Amino acid sequence: MKIRWKMLIILLTFSLTPLFVLKTHGLNSLKDLGADLQTQTRVTLLERATHNLADQAKGAAVMIDIEGRLYQSTLKSIQGEAELRLNDNDIPPQKNSPYITTRHKSFDKPELTNSPAYKKRALMGKGTNRRGDHNMMAAVQRGDFIDLPVTLNHISFWLAGNLSPQEAKADINKIAPLLDDFKSCASSLNSLILWQEIILENGLVATYPGHDSFPRKYDPRTHAWYKEVKEQGEVSWTLPSTDAATKTLCNRLTAPLYGNDGQFIGVASLVIPIGESLNKALVSTDTKKAKVMLVTTLHRDDSHKNSLLVLGKIGDEQIEEDFRPMHGYFWQAPPEKEWLTEDNPEFKTLIKDVTDKNSGVLHMNDNGVPSLWTYSPVNNSVSILIIIPVHEFTAEADEAEQYVRESIANQLEGTSLIALAVILSIAIVAYFVSQGLSKPIHKLSEAMIKVGEGDWDARADFHSKDELGDLAQNFNYMVPQLREHSRIRQALSLADEAQQSLFPKSPPDIENVDIGARCTFSEQTGGDYYDFVGCATCGPKTFATVIGDVSGHGVSAALLMTSARAYIRALSGRGKTLVEAATEVNRLITKDCAQTGHFMTMFMAICNADERTVNWIRAGHDPGMVYSPETDTFDQLLGEGLALGVDEGYPYREYLTQMNQGQILVLYTDGIWEAHSPAGNQFGKDRMKQVIRDNCHKSSQEISDIILLEVENHRKGLPLEDDCTIIVVKFL
């Protein structure tokens, strides 16, 4: 059958059938279609919103957990330093007079600065006598946010109860040197923390930053959290409560302090603003359309067994665009106990998840309004809860339904006329188009055959302004590109040979150690790197080895790897120390990667064959592995270190490990243990350890080759997903 007839039949079938179907079913069917579209859109929007909110809840939980660990480590540091100083009776008196505040007056008060990072609500009405600058305060209304005066260069010592300055003098002298520690912690935590406090049993309260804003009768020893820590003797979180100085909603992380005789002497405490962590979790939430609150299942009684206690929520007042409090002051505690409850099974699931510190999203009514309830844990069975009405997500679906109905009604009016016009038009178009198709297609087919036979000068010799003309033009453009790609493949092959030549021809021959290494690329060029570098400052029986992995692979990774090799070799020739070399290489690579997004992990080590020591730096790389055949145990060379190319000024730290005779040091890239089998299973570090264990009696080079062979057998023909590199050093 001729092309013209095939085209006529196809065009008539696919063009007229839909028209006749629409004509037959009529307006009612089309309206049903619009309704179905609206329903599906609603479902899709709700599913998308549910997934997005669930991801947001999980992300918030992870972020809050990370910050919680940071708080724990910071408090542990303060706790240890405070106990050390408080139990040291030989501390000389301080040269500078301490800043002491009492309920009646202050002693040696330094200059306080109104800090926008520390705000509180004004409790006094307009015109009332206030401390400080009366002219400045004259326009302040009750409830307004005002800056709190603090000092970042002093610790303030509050004397609670009947404690006198003379009685507190000895403890003040012991705590005053903690100023630098407080400053360091404040610098690390930045806006994540409000106050750092040391509270002693005698009533002395040391606070940083220093201030004089405590209420006159403030005595933390009477608070439940203080008594709880004293009784339990362990680090604990408090439920959100109002801070005594700023009147804002805060958490408190507290650790006990003990004397040399094991006697409880006080607590170290971090006052943490609620808003800072939770505001980040709410970055995509429109708080004007949602209810945002902190809830818990603690402190329930029998009458509220199936309820959640509301600890805090977003304030009702609108926050001005130019006001961004660092510590989230728009979080407020309810003036009275407030309980949240719904009579349905989903709410019981919510209570269980809050108790078990889970995150998630539930579809549930809020006072009769269908809503999405998003929740994620904070700590101690406290969760952030966001309630958003469903109609906020489905408004677009309702508008789309109306638009579809109006469009369908307009289109049906011209269906009959369009059907007749289409029949005539298709018949004419099919005839003329088919005539213009056959000749160009034939010429194009001949040109393709010539190219397939190796004739790079063959071209499709016809011109047309339609798609066939574009096809011919693209074909003619493609042929030189294919020839160029062929040349590029040859060049890549040469580049691969050049890159392979950069690797050491063989490991160094050093007495008392046996060294082996191997590298396999996943593409023609790769980003893995290993080298053995002469150590100009270390001696003849000491050698330096380096293994690295550039993010990604291919040409760009190979270029970065080559640059890193050049930097390391240049620096090693100058007698640089390990830390100096790592720091300088990181600086140079960071400049190279500034606009590329690439980075490079690296493990650098200096091995002394006589003393059997390994000095090493780990820059984001997999930790080194040490196998002891005598005890059949594996150890890891861990340690902190950021990948190269991320932070130009990152300070690297050198570590030292003493090796024993017979121990085996293995350095590797993640392409080995991440290699997948056809079933999707990774090769894994456990299997790599077993290969080392089974072949520990063999030479280092044999162990290296066997590991890569096992990886190849594990893949069973699958291509490598990443470069694989390994270095094995046996201490004889």
Give a brief description.
The protein is an alpha+beta fold. It has 15 helices and 28 strands. It folds into 3 domains: 68-123 and 142-273, PAS domain (Beta-Lactamase); 277-393, Beta-Lactamase (2-Layer Sandwich), CATH 3.30.450; 503-731, PPM-type phosphatase domain (Phosphatase 2c, domain 1, 4-Layer Sandwich).
Q: Key features?
A:
28 strands, PPM-type-like_dom_sf, nine-stranded mixed beta sheet, HAMP_dom, 3 domains, Beta-Lactamase, alpha+beta, single chain, Phosphatase 2c, domain 1, Bact_Sigma-Reg, seven-stranded antiparallel beta sheet, 15 helices
Describe the structure.
This protein has 732 residues and is α+β, with helices and mostly antiparallel strands. It has three domains: 68-123 and 142-273, 2-Layer Sandwich (Beta-Lactamase), CATH 3.30.450; 277-393, 2-Layer Sandwich (Beta-Lactamase), CATH 3.30.450; 503-731, Phosphatase 2c, domain 1. Helices cover 41% and strands 23% of the residues. The chain has 15 helices and 28 strands. The strands form five sheets. Strands 1, 2, 5, 6, 7, 8, 9, 10 and 11 form a nine-stranded mixed sheet that branches. Strands 12, 13, 14, 15, 16, 17 and 18 form a seven-stranded antiparallel sheet that branches. It has a five-stranded antiparallel sheet with strand order 19-28-27-24-25. β1 and β2 form a beta hairpin. The longest helix has 84 residues, at 3-86. Residues 124-138 and 317-329 have low confidence and may be disordered.
